[in-house]
Write a structure and sequence with these properties.
Number of helices: 4
Strand content: under 5%
Distance between the termini: 57 Å
Helix content: 40-55%
Order of helices and strands: HHHH
Number of strands: 0
Structural class: mainly alpha
Length: 153
């Protein structure tokens, strides 16, 4: 088994990656996270890569240059291949490809996306029940279905 990296040791100790402070479960303490957010926002505003600070040559991304995106992609693939969470390198939860923290984030994001899509579909169908004598408009009571149960025909 390989020797743990500097960052893995710091994380196991519950220490911030950027300073000597304790960070608990997070990779960085609150102060360092806020500094990093501020730096990235400043770089984004100046149209430079938020990771390396070089001029952003990527027309499809405001945040990262092509070189840094390639590094991120390679790291993601390597972690997936090693059977680790592709986002942080931690061991995944059983039955998943992600660690618990990233799995929870993904589930929240998926739920949000599902609700938004469902709202758009219901709005496209008029936002109310299609039965002749029904005035139900509460989204929780509405469903999308074939009127005559003939969807498979």
């Amino acid at each position: 088994m390989s020797e743990p990296t500097y960052h893995q040791k710091r994380r196991a100790e519950g220490r911030c990656m950027s300073c000597p402070a304790h960070s608990g479960e997070a990779a960085r303490c609150i102060e360092c996270r806020n500094k990093r957010k501020k730096k990235h926002a400043h770089r984004k505003k100046k149209r430079v890569c938020a990771d390396c600070g070089q001029p952003n040559d990527n027309p499809n991304s405001v945040r990262s240059c092509l070189k840094c995106i390639g590094k991120h992609r390679d790291r993601y693939k390597d972690r997936r291949k090693a059977g680790l969470c592709p986002y942080c390198g931690e061991p995944p939860v059983e039955g998943s490809t992600m660690c618990d923290a990233h799995r929870q984030r993904s589930l929240v994001k998926d739920r949000r996306k599902y609700r938004k899509l469902r709202a758009q579909v219901l709005e496209a169908y008029g936002g109310k029940c299609q039965c002749p004598s029904c005035d139900v408009t509460t989204p929780e009571f509405l469903q999308i279905d074939h009127v005559n149960d003939d969807g498979g025909e």
